[in-house]
Amino acid sequence: MLDRPKIDPALLARFTAIVGEKFAITDPDLQAPYLVEMRNMFQGHTPVVLRPSSVAEVSAIAKLANDTATPIVPQGGNTGLVGGQIPLHNEIVLSLNRLDRIREVDPTSNTITCEAGVTLQRTREAAAEVDRLYPQLLPSEGTCTIGGNLSTNAGGTAAIAHGIARSHALGIEVVLADGRVLNNLNKLKKDNTGYDLKNIFIGAEGTLGIITAAVLRLVPRPRSVETAFAGIKSPQAALELLGIATERTAGGVTSFEIMTRRGIELVLEHGTGCRDPLNSPHEWYALIELSSQQREGLRDVMEEILAQGMEQGLVLDATIADSIEQAKMYWRIREMFGEVQRHAGGSIKHDISVPVAAVPAFIAEANAAVTKLIPGCRPLPFGHLGDGNIHYNVTQPAGADKAEYLQRWDEVNAAVFAVVKKYGGSISAEHGVGVVKRDLLPSVKDPVALELMHSLKRMLDPKGILNPGKVL
């Protein structure tokens, strides 16, 4: 049973007064969407969900929380997968989804300035309206927010070409633990006037400050896009095919995903709106997207890449989307991989990265390690081969007891993470640390780096009010 200290009614009234009663949620039924994360691993509790509409209100909340040593949990779209956004010890929830203004779109400078509660989808739509692209893409784009993406340093399927969330931020606005506002909303690509403070807060999961707005970089909108779905011989073959595509396009590979047949079958059985793209099954698949500023010729390039792959025995069969709808169907298959795995029973999930060259060896050795540990378990690796980020999920043996299987989570973690460590990888690639991986940090993080993280936390949040118990 969690320790859930009661908040003094008079203090609760002071917090409520900052946002107004309409935007201070105390009804348990109305609080529910803020208290459960997507995988139902954590159930939170809070005396109130505060929904400020301005930076001034966020600042006032933080100042009052700091003055009274009242812990708060900042929250964006509540799409996180490691528990970082859930109040586990009766903290106040500070929901930022009413900070939803797009303050400026500047196509000449190739920037867009968004408040923290603007969804990724709205950001991309606003960029498209001025013929630009905001290059981050996540399956949860309709729900996840810019503040949450930056706080977790989210990745996505286009990271091979454009990088992850940190790569897109030119400047940010942050409310500090004591209520002060750090205004670092500049559009500059070159600024060497001291420390780059924004990167202290990006990826910190709300433990060092509350991101309230950001200036994000835009890129030219591609004039042509081609999407292919290929049956491939192995992860090693996929890696060699990626090399061919990279050489042929000189940076035009915007996505390169790998998937297993077992996952495809789960999508076809339990998903909707999907069909098998190829005529016969293959053990492994690649989903490849190319983009270009040229209006013509990209399909020829894709055909040449696949043809060379076939000549070298890397590609067994392939198809190129003939329409936007067909391309969306290919992507839907990939995006449903995580969701449909629940139909196969308990799944122990890992979000890891290793150097791109080590991905095939990692998959082979991790498969051997987990099947030795739990005979009959079913590895389902998939993800972003182009940047070395693999979602290495391990499904229970057929017919096994789900609860008993999930009790072995730490054992499976240890087996997988030992292989990650061998190849100089990371146990958290794009989902953050939160609660799920917090206690693992001392075993994988450089001791000096971990000491500096603790020092930053003490300096920026000396009373420990910002998202306590997360990350550290």
Structural class: alpha+beta
- Measured distance between first and last alpha carbons: 21 Å
Low-confidence stretches: none
Proportion of residues in β-strands: 15-25%
Rg over alpha carbons: 23 Å
The portion of residues assigned to helices is: 25-40%
Largest sheet: 8 strands, antiparallel
How would you describe what is shown here?
The chain has helices at residues 9-19, 28-31, 55-67, 120-129, 146-152, 159-162, 165-168, 198-201, 235-249, 261-270, 298-311, 324-335, 337-340, 359-373, 402-406, 409-422, 441-444, 447-460, and strands at 24-25, 49-50, 72-75, 92-95, 102-106, 111-115, 132-133, 169-175, 181-184, 210-217, 219-220, 224-232, 253-260, 284-292, 315-320, 347-348, 351-353, 378-384, 389-395. With 472 residues, it is of the alpha+beta class. The strands form 4 sheets. Strands 12, 13, 14, 15, 16, 17, 18 and 19 form an 8-stranded antiparallel sheet that branches. It has a 5-stranded antiparallel sheet with strand order 5-6-10-8-9. The chain has a 4-stranded mixed sheet with strand order 1-2-4-3. It is globular.
Keyword list:
35% helix, 19 strands, 472 residues, eight-stranded antiparallel sheet, alpha+beta, single chain, 18 helices, five-stranded antiparallel sheet
Question: What's the short version?
Answer:
This protein is an alpha+beta fold and 472 residues long. It is 35% helix and 20% strand. The two termini are 21 Å apart.
How would the blueprint of this fold be written?
Blueprint: H1 9-19, E1 24-25, H2 28-31, E2 49-50, H3 55-67, E3 72-75, E4 92-95, E5 102-106, E6 111-115, H4 120-129, E7 132-133, H5 146-152, H6 159-162, H7 165-168, E8 169-175, E9 181-184, H8 198-201, E10 210-217, E11 219-220, E12 224-232, H9 235-249, E13 253-260, H10 261-270, E14 284-292, H11 298-311, E15 315-320, H12 324-335, H13 337-340, E16 347-348, E17 351-353, H14 359-373, E18 378-384, E19 389-395, H15 402-406, H16 409-422, H17 441-444, H18 447-460
Parallel strand pairs: 2-4, 3-4
Antiparallel strand pairs: 1-2, 5-6, 6-10, 7-11, 8-9, 8-10, 12-14, 12-15, 13-14, 13-18, 16-19, 17-19, 18-19
Helix pairs in contact: 1-3, 9-11, 14-16
